[in-house]
Amino acid sequence: MNAMERVLTAMRNEEADRVPVYPILAGATRRLVGASYPEWSQNADICAAAYIKAVEEFDLDCVVTLIDLSVECEAWGQEVDYPEDEAARPNFKNLLIQDIEDYAKIKKVDYRQGKRMMMHLEVIKQLVARFKGEVPIVAFVFGPLGTLSMMRNQQDMYMDLYDDPDAVKAAVKNVNETLKDYSAALCDAGADAIMYDTLFASGSIMSKQMWIDMEGGLMKELSAINKARGVLTMTHNCGEKIYFDAQIECYGTNAISFACPPDDCKDFAECKEKYGDKILLIGCVSPATTVVGDLKDWEEECKNNIDIMAKGGGFMLASGCEFPANASLDYAYKMVEVAKTYGVYKK
Fold first, then answer.
1. Per-residue model confidence as pLDDT tens digits over 36-84
2. 3-state class of 344 per DSSP?
3. Beta pairing class for 89-90 and 80-81
4. pTM
5. Rounded to a whole number, what is the distance in angstroms from the first to the last CA of the chain?
6. pLDDT, tens digit, for every residue of 158-182?
């Protein structure tokens, strides 16, 4: 079975030869090609080469092109900082939205004027040229509310939702109009799926109803773009108490990458029981273990996730969020090893 066959089998809630696996390596891949973070996150050739090397070096079952959460906001003119050994981020001292009145400046823009969105698009094209049909290629996009938050301090934006929700809604809708065109371009470039980061769909950030009102309908529009092109919609949210039910209902996501049990489940076992036949569950090994634990702890977490969620398919072993950019790659090797040994399905 190749990686594509393995993942599609899991998505059909069937047991493949083994559990599919994908540590979310992201910026850690830059080390495989000897690149700095700024080079990796701005140069399509370097970034694509790093992802290709990661798939080949670790024998990964998919590739998710998480670069950083500032890829989209740059198209509106948001200034971005590029640290040498950390992910790029907005210049928080010079945010585009300084007060409520500034939301009116956020109009639909042509995604092609965004250098970083175009760079990401080129990465997808190179991955498609190398892996199409063999390894699932999953484009990573920050959702509309998250993209808007990169232009406004998140805490301030949250308060703005109470002070003037209409101003925020108008801006986030315009952001989404751009993301719809961007998603269509990623689909047309050959991506097999688009994974949207729905940061705010979490009980640790905002209520379920507020998220539905602010982003749920917009996510449905994005999902429709993908579906019309035969491309899957996936979700990433590593927050606590995330809203599986609302996201499945709002936009029919095909998979959720997560770190913590959803708000209506007490643990991962209940999550598997409740949602294992509805979506592909992707997770949920804590990236923090690469820093505060050791390889044995990491191995046990991988095995525990397999024990709880792998039966009957519908599960991909992965880190619950981005693999720490400077952590030892031994942890990634170990996760793949566990999937290939402990994660073999008994026929």
1. 999 999 999 999 999 999 999 999 999 999 999 999 999 999 999 999 9
2. strand
3. antiparallel
4. 0.97
5. 15
6. 899 999 999 999 999 999 999 999 9
